[in-house]
Amino acid sequence: xxxxxxxxxxxxxxxxxxxxxxxxxxxxxxxxxxxxxxxxxxxxxxxxxxxxxxxxxxxxxxxxxxxxxxxxxxxxxxxxxxxxxxxxxxxxxxxxxxxxxxxxxxxxxxxxxxxxxxxxxxxxxxxxxxxxxxxxxxxxxxxxxxxxxxxxxxxxxxxxxxxxxxxxxxxxxxxxxxxxxxxxxxxxxxxxxxxxxxxxxxxxxxxxxxxxxxxxxxxxxxxxxxxxxxxxxxxxxxxxxxxxxxxxxxxxxxxxxxxxxxxxxxxxxxxxxxxxxxxxxxxxxxxxxxxxxxxxxxxxxxxxxxxxxxxxxxxxxxxxxxxxxxxxxxxx
Length: 332
What we know:
Elements: E1 8-9, H1 10-22, E2 27-31, E3 37-41, E4 52-55, E5 58-59, E6 74-78, H2 82-98, E7 103-114, H3 118-124, E8 129-133, E9 137-141, E10 144-149, E11 152-155, E12 158-163, H4 169-174, H5 177-195, E13 199-214, E14 217-229, H6 238-242, E15 253-254, H7 256-266, E16 277-281, E17 285-290, E18 294-297, E19 303-311, H8 317-326
Antiparallel strand pairs: 1-3, 2-3, 2-16, 4-5, 4-8, 6-7, 7-15, 7-19, 8-9, 9-18, 10-11, 10-17, 11-14, 12-14, 13-14, 16-17, 18-19
């Protein structure tokens, strides 16, 4: 019999993550953007555990074939209104000019219609991190958050996107001043976050390129790798290690607390599970991901694709709006 997913408060999530980690019990967990609700599944490889998930080829959906051979299709029903996005952008820009923030990640939702179920999209989507809360939410994310192996903790902030089909796309992205400033800011923020839970924090790799296939063609994205060393004997206290670093810096901005407040004033719809984090512990290592590239069912029961981008004082409203629209795609 299929198990119903149990949604729990944030404080209970922390306790369960610590207890399961210390007992070396495999589990899958997730938490929403606002850090108010989450879930823990302690029999994660069962196909009847209440979710479908895949973390870099490990999950509970293997052997589950799509119901048809037709590729899933998604149609945009209504883009965010330009005027409404402009109001959100102006609110963020005012905060940046006041000095409330140096970088703020502004998001909006696009109404979409899918000619199949979210489970079909899950099975066809190509991404290293996938999660399905049946009939409610799906993400097919390219962005890792935190990996923990022994006392080593690593995070991989992703910031900067370009259409790979453009001439000289790689150099255009790597030499773009705005994108470079965003990336420096997020890497510095993640260094600070790791410093709060570990020591000997360092940037192992800075601004490396990754190519991602989408239904609209390939894109380039830039990431970095930041590492630290956890206290001996505390490396399995996952609730104490990971949850204090939320929400993730790459989807908020810096300084984090003031930027989260600014985002809350600007955005006109709740993020819900979008830009939250989910992860998998296999009994030895923990791996987690930021829940971007998401389709979510709203309170009105319609489906929305959430997307966004980083805003700085150098940003242009029209360009940021077009980037938000360009990120509405299925991965193939």
